[in-house]
Amino acid sequence: MSGARPANGVLEVVRVLPRMSPWLSAALAFVLVAQAVLTSGFMLASAAVVGDVAQGAADRDTAMLHLGVLIAVFVLRLGLQPVSGFLSGELARRLEARLGQTTLEGALRPVGIGHLSDPAVADRIQLAQGLASGHPPGQAVNSLARLVSSRLAGLAAAILLATVAWWLPLPLAAAWIALSRWRLREVKKAVDAEAESMPALRHAAYARDLAIGDAAAKEIRVFGFQDWAHERFTRAWLGGMDALDGSARLLSRTAGPVLLALAHLAVFAYLALAAADGRLDAEAVTVALQATAGMGALGWIGDVQWILTRAGATVPHALAIGRLDVEAEHRGVGATASDERLPAREIRFEDVRFGYPDRPVLQGLDLAVPAGSSLAIVGMNGAGKSTLIKLLARLYEPDTGRVTVDGTDLRTIDPHTWRRQLAIVFQDFVRYELPLRDNVGFGRVGADHSDAAFDRPAKLSGLGDFLPRLEAGWDTPLSRRFEGGTDLSGGQWQRVALARALFAVEHGAKVLVLDEPTANLDVRAEAEIYRHFLEITRGLTTILVSHRFATVRLADRICVLGDGRVLEYGSHEELMELGGRYAHLFTLQSEPFREARHV
Ligand SMILES: Nc1ncnc2c1ncn2[C@@H]1O[C@H](COP(=O)(O)OP(=O)(O)OP(=O)(O)O)[C@@H](O)[C@H]1O
């Protein structure tokens, strides 16, 4: 993804609003124009009233008419304010909701997950929400409405002033517009700096979340790095903010007022001389003075333009995230082949090479997993076991080589169809702070989530042991941060994750993948899983990643992964006979137990 430099956000807002809500946008535009017309009407009517007063109210009826028009225009203008406020508020809400959806859709759309660890994407997601500037996209609408209304009023004032003398608006317009452009350039610099300082601000946000969140609360206190978190947050935040403040300094503070003073001096001098000569009457002078003041609306409108520029800058980021499917590389999206019964014969990795941006992992991996059998994968930390699972789930795609299912390249199989065949317990499975029912039900969204539907997964995963102790049963939130919620132990969470995968199996998944499924289980719970292993895996193609050889030996076949490829492959007995790496590791792990038994 390209860098996080923003496009012209205000133009994007102007482009998006009419497409999103044409009627509301048109209504707002109409009200804004009406407000501008009424503003100039107010100037004209008040000038007419002043003229009547200057003439000593010679014509009483005309004077009353002028006064009536003045009051009517004033009341109408006042009445339109809440209408434009309502319309812009409604558009702001819709824009924010739309861009929020766009960001979510973009982040979720890619088949793989590589984009989520791309720092440029992470920056954009933050920028799209206006978190650093404190100005979310909705604020752009309100500011835009106020800016357009001011500009129209300024334009109307300029036209009125030109009726007094054609050249009068020119010096004022030149001075106000120049000042406005200088200031705008400064604010745009600040917006650019904000995009550049986003990595620092994300570091700050990470340190803050560590300090105030649940996840690291224990370690921060036990290891005592509260000061580190505090210091890290402050340093990163101030670093990010420095960049913003530094570039937000407005250089035009001196030249602007001088130019404005000169322009106003010229206009006022002319008005004074013309009035003294009798070329202008009181009414014309009043119109001219009001119009002169009104032309200020063409200049820099502090808060409004500041907020508009910064809130508007979020929009291109949200739209860019929304286009992620185009920008990211997703070969095979929209693939045609789909089959709910895969795999019938085998899953095969063929000469697969794959690496993350900073390191190669698999270097020519060949591996076959016959359908309906179980395969255990062992290997050192970092050998690439979990990576292999991610390739199988198509969360990443091989750099070269291919993964096939019954001979069909995974890239030509519809990813959603394929993933419905998979039931995976990831090593870093998610502990959803939601009721137990959702935690297990996520295994197949849309399926029957009644208590009875969970019976079998609960029994096989060992959930049944602690389910009766949960106050609200399946509806108990699994987080103490929610009313009536509870927290689970590591092993209990692992059973929940297993139940989730088994629920997917209940609903048709044919490939069960267990990445370290018993790492947190106590001996009894682990033994229980082993007891059920055959029942759990019956009829399924099972892939098991584990460092526990007692688990591994349950599999029909075992493969030892190392140096980015398969080093050994066979049944437990075959590999023990081979006397290679597996036999060595197995012996190493069983030794302490053997010794213990001798004690
Ligand atoms: N998202 C990622 N981005 C970059 N590198 C990664 C990513 N995930 C894993 N790696 C790296 O890829 C290598 C293989 O990681 P993987 O998690 O597949 O190993 P593993 O065999 O499952 O290890 P373990 O036994 O410790 O679970 C490691 O060097 C790891 O640091």
UniProtKB/TrEMBL annotation:
ABC transporter domain ranges (all copies): 347-588
SUPFAM superfamilies: ABC transporter transmembrane region, P-loop containing nucleoside triphosphate hydrolases
Domain of life: Bacteria
Subcellular compartments: Cell membrane
Keyword Transmembrane in record: yes
Keyword set, alphabetical order: ATP-binding, Membrane, Nucleotide-binding, Transmembrane, Transmembrane helix
InterPro entries: AAA+_ATPase, ABC1_TM_sf, ABC_transporter-like_ATP-bd, ABC_transporter-like_CS, P-loop_NTPase, Type_1_exporter
Protein topology in the membrane: Multi-pass membrane protein
Gene3D superfamilies on file: ABC transporter type 1, transmembrane domain, P-loop containing nucleotide triphosphate hydrolases
A Pfam cross-reference name: ABC_tran
Spans traversing the lipid bilayer: 23-50, 62-80, 152-179, 258-276
Protein name from the UniProt record: ABC transporter ATP-binding protein
Principal location: membrane
Molecular functions (GO terms): ATP binding
